[in-house]
């Protein structure tokens, strides 16, 4: 067998190998093309990109740093009072209800004062009687003084008249004190608002018998609230009012 005949089969086999490789490359390229479809494999922007707007602030150099701290607190009324009658008695009127705004010195409730008014009239009558007794005693003392100046009356008799004047004045003072006590009791038979605020509680109604000092109404001031906040000791020591 000649040398030329041996080279021909080798050359043919090389051509076949190259053909197989070419077919494989074409097959892979076709598969990729089918999978991607007709879209371009690379997204090429067609318009110029727009700049994003941002908030800018100038840079300022400082020697210190201030940090805002938050703490939990509660807002309370500066004043609140449980109101009741100093003396006991039957309640005749309650002029407010829960949620009502009241002004300072406004009458909120009243007790029955008919018995006190009757005793006050009797005390006023005693005052009038005592005033008459004082006037009579002083007139008698003036007459006795005129007689004693002329040695027509003994000193003992004049001393007795002076004692009657002093006793009449004492009875007058006692009657006036009794009448003043009754007037105070009548005044205390009304509950007045010690400050402006809002009624937050009503515990009784008309006709009930109120005991001395029993809370009837709850009044809370709303004009001047207070804030109570718990602070760590190190933070509180750095704060100023």
What does it look like?
With 241 residues, the chain is of the alpha+beta class. Helix content is 45%, strand content 19%. The protein has a 4-stranded antiparallel β-sheet, with no helix packed on it. The longest helix is centred in the middle third of the chain and has 36 residues, at 114-149. The protein is rod-shaped and about 185 Å long. The protein starts with a helix and ends in a 5-residue tail after the last helix. Mean pLDDT is 81; it is low at 1-7.
Blueprint (SSEs and pairs):
Blueprint: H1 3-36, E1 73-77, E2 80-84, E3 89-94, E4 101-102, E5 107-111, H2 114-149, H3 155-188, E6 190-192, E7 197-202, E8 209-210, E9 215-220, E10 225-229, H4 233-236
Antiparallel strand pairs: 1-10, 2-9, 3-5, 3-8, 4-7, 5-6, 7-9
Helix pairs in contact: 2-3
* Share of helix, binned: 40-55%
Unreliable residue runs: 1-7
Structural class: alpha+beta
Total count of helical runs of at least 4 residues: 4
Strand order of the largest sheet: 2-9-7-4
- Alpha carbon gyration radius: 55 Å
Distance between the termini: 119 Å
Taken from the alpha-carbon principal axes, the silhouette is: rod-shaped
What proportion strand? 15-25%
N-to-C series of helices and strands: HEEEEEHHEEEEEH
Count of β-strands: 10
Overall mean pLDDT: 81
Largest sheet: 4 strands, antiparallel
